[in-house]
Amino acid sequence: MTNTVLHTANSRGHANHGWLDSYHTFSFANYYNPERINFGALRVLNDDTVAGGRGFGSHPHDNMEIVSIPLEGDLEHQDNLGNVAVIRKGDVQIISAGTGVFHSEKNKNPDKPVQFLQIWLYPNKLNGTPRYDQVSLDVKDRHNNFQQILSPNPDDAGVWIQQDAWFSLGKFDQGFQTNYHLKKTDNGVYAFVLEGDVTINGQQLHRRDGFGIWNVDQLHFTADSAGAEVLLMDIPMNI
Amino acid sequence: MHRLNILAIHRDTKILATVLRLINANGQWNGIGAITNEEAIELFHQQPVGIVLFCSGIDPESEEKLKAVFSTQKPAPIFLQHFGGGSGLLSAEIYEALAKQGH
């Protein structure tokens, strides 16, 4: 039997620290909701806006796969592995924290905010070697198409992570319909609507809504508004 | 007020310091930290420990050995795998574990 969970945009946890305005789909920091811990291997989905010139100072992580997806603006990354980089809209960043990594993420621009998604997945192997990577993708390839941005395979499109997960981004014309076939038995899909309105397997969704669905082989997707943008996260449910 | 002793074991000194800082930010919790198995066992025997937090770098053999030693305490502490390294997940992990124990 198909199972679903709906997390509407306005039901998310919210923390406004001035320099950081963050919406938490799942329990994070001071937001704790025992009904909102994870969706399979997906543990964190933070919708962050960082003020101009501000950011997260150097801090550690371990045993977590951390994906950042800029939505607007530029994010400057530094870590103790020696990486210094900037990620922009169209880029995807992965930090595979493994045994431990220190990093900072700051708004590159002093005069405008940066918006990005911060997504954490449990790894399928503990204590791996820390690793950083980023890719630039052509956003035109996601027009009326779910463009793969992440997979478990180093040779596949997008960044790769230490988990049997696949992420795809799409931007659609109103009325466009398509099916998405799950990559792996026992995976589920968590859909996060970036912009506009969509319907997935009969569930209407709006901007920043999240919808998890599992025990299913494929999704039927309809864009209900012009320019609807969706992130699909195909994720192991058994961890 | 009685504070819950939480023993965090991490092989990285700097990350352990962050984990302890976050634990101690909660007035009901008291974080104590160890780098090595020997330090962890010594600290464990100095006070009653409610939660043992296994952080990054603990190999399965060490974890089993430590659990065997710590299980001699009655009641046994809660054993918890910490993910993320002193991150925003720590509080939720502890709250979840306590809830499962009926606290």
TrEMBL record, chain A:
InterPro entries the UniProt entry points to: Pirin, Pirin_N_dom, Quercetinase_C, RmlC-like_jellyroll, RmlC_Cupin_sf
Domain (Pirin N-terminal) ranges: 9-121
Membrane spanning stretches: none
Residue span, Quercetin 2,3-dioxygenase C-terminal cupin domain: 149-235
Binding site for Fe cation: H59, H61, H103, E105
Cofactor annotation: Fe cation
Alphabetically ordered keywords of this record: Iron, Metal-binding
Note on cofactor: Binds 1 Fe cation per subunit.
CDD domains assigned to the protein according to its UniProt record, in alphabetical order: cupin_Yhhw_N
Family: Belongs to the pirin family.
Protein name as it appears in the record: Pirin family protein
Automatic annotation (TrEMBL), chain B:
Source taxon at top rank: Bacteria
Record protein name field: Response regulator receiver protein
Annotated source species: Mucilaginibacter arboris
